[in-house]
Amino acid sequence: MIILVMGVSGSGKTTIGKTLAESLGWKFRDADDFHPQENIDKMRNGVALNDADRLPWLQKMLDVIKQCLSETTNIVITCSALKESYRQMLLVNHESVKLVYLKGSFELIQQRLKERKNHFMNEQLLKSQFDILEEPLDSLTVDISQPLEVIVREIVEKLRSQLG
Questions:
Q1: DSSP state at residue 48
Q2: Rounded distance between C-alpha atoms, residue 57 and residue 54, angstroms
Q3: Between residues 46 and 74, which one has the greater pLDDT?
Q4: 49: which DSSP letter?
Q5: Distance of alpha carbon 152 from alpha carbon 16, whole angstroms
Q6: Domain range list for the chain
Q7: Smallest Cα–Cα separation from 59: which of 35, 23, 26?
Q8: Which element (helix H / strand E) includes 78?
């Protein structure tokens, strides 16, 4: 099974994803590790990515997902997946892919980005992410204003109830 944790930059994907993977004893992959250097440079310079910039990156993520599905690897993968078309590309309708949406207010996430160090995504790009965000209707949605342990426990409990 694959749990795809999505949300805008600063929503806690990496922290929550790693903690969730550890609590389940699963593997973890962060989509940020797959960005080409050109994308990282653009974001570092405050330039928002467009669909053409994201396509090769999403293709790499799709390759990872397909490999995990073929190997029946249990894994938590984090990816912004801001648009429905991106999520469709990443197989979120596959029976073995579960989508978790980390939802938070612009103000909360902006504050987190101000406090974050050593990351290529800066707070000026947050508005562009909220502008293109298409909130998923078919996801397990969690409120990120809660403590980390509460968020992870909620995700695990909701997934268990969905899976029976």
A1: P
A2: 5
A3: 74
A4: P
A5: 7
A6: 2-163
A7: 35
A8: strand 75-78
CA distance 123 to 116: 9
81 falls in which pLDDT band (50, 70, 90)? Answer: very high
**Partners of 143 in the β-ladder:** 103
CATH class of 2-163: alpha beta
Enter the tokens of residue 16: 């929550």
Angle between helices 148-163 and 13-24 (to 10 degrees): 60
Angle between helices 51-70 and 37-44 (to 10 degrees): 130
Q: What's the predicted TM-score (pTM) here?
A: 0.90
Q: State both tokens at 156.
A: 């695990």
Residues 149 and 164: their CA atoms lie apart, in Å, by: 22
Alpha helices in the chain (DSSP H): 13-24, 37-44, 51-70, 84-89, 106-115, 126-132, 148-163
Query: In whole angstroms, what is the distance from residue 81 CA to residue 73 CA?
Result: 21
The residue whose two tokens read 């962060």 is 30
78 beta partners: 5, 30
Query: How many Å apart are CA 69 and CA 76, to the nearest integer?
Result: 12
At 30, is the secondary structure helix, strand, or coil? Answer: strand
